[in-house]
Automatic annotation (TrEMBL):
<keyword id="KW-0238">DNA-binding</keyword>
<dbReference type="InterPro" id="IPR036390">
    <property type="entry name" value="WH_DNA-bd_sf"/>
</dbReference>
<protein>
    <submittedName>
        <fullName>Transcriptional regulator, IscR/Rrf2 family</fullName>
    </submittedName>
</protein>
<dbReference type="GO" id="GO:0003677">
    <property type="term" value="F:DNA binding"/>
</dbReference>
<dbReference type="GO" id="GO:0003700">
    <property type="term" value="F:DNA-binding transcription factor activity"/>
</dbReference>
<dbReference type="Pfam" id="PF02082">
    <property type="entry name" value="Rrf2"/>
</dbReference>
<dbReference type="InterPro" id="IPR036388">
    <property type="entry name" value="WH-like_DNA-bd_sf"/>
</dbReference>
<dbReference type="GO" id="GO:0005829">
    <property type="term" value="C:cytosol"/>
</dbReference>
<dbReference type="InterPro" id="IPR000944">
    <property type="entry name" value="Tscrpt_reg_Rrf2"/>
</dbReference>
Length: 153
């Protein structure tokens, strides 16, 4: 699964706002801090406001703040909102299921169903707050020896 720029930017914004612990931030400053085009970010913020994750604070020193506690927003719900589905192929998706002519005799479909289920379990368990409690990964973490053989991971 690869998430879109829109989802990536939405997650960046949520984490940056959560780090402020209740303070608001303008879209101008937020866009600069998280390296997201301001016009694109403004649309994303409106969507997240409608979803109930952030709230708009009016006024000269206004901007956006979290509308929900960071422990109540999961990565799974954010990704589903912007992507529509977590499944890698639509014949194992709950929300965007599309039938396939090979379903009754497909040997790899179960693998993709297992990937969907494990991915959903992890993303639905991880909240904005729990992720903030982890340290960011380093480039060398990506190239650990046990993953070297999996080119294109």
């Amino acid at each position: 699964m690869k998430v879109s720029k829109k989802t990536d930017y939405a997650l960046r914004a949520l984490f940056a706002i959560a780090e402020l612990k209740g303070e608001s931030i303008s879209t101008k400053i937020l866009s600069e801090n998280i390296d997201v085009p301001r016009r694109f970010l403004e649309n994303i913020m409106l969507e997240m406001n409608n979803a109930g994750w952030v709230k708009s604070i009016p006024g000269r020193y206004g901007g956006y703040a979290l509308a929900k506690d960071a422990n109540e927003i999961t990565l799974g719900e954010v990704i589903r909102h912007f992507e529509g589905m977590i499944a890698m192929i639509s014949c194992v998706s709950v929300s965007n299921y599309e039938p396939c002519s090979q379903e009754s005799k497909c040997y790899f479909r179960r693998v993709f169903l297992n990937i969907r289920n494990l991915t959903a379990q992890i993303l639905d368990k991880m909240t904005i707050a729990s992720c903030l409690g982890q340290k960011p990964i380093q480039k060398e973490d990506i190239y650990k020896e046990e993953f070297i053989g999996g080119l294109g991971i």
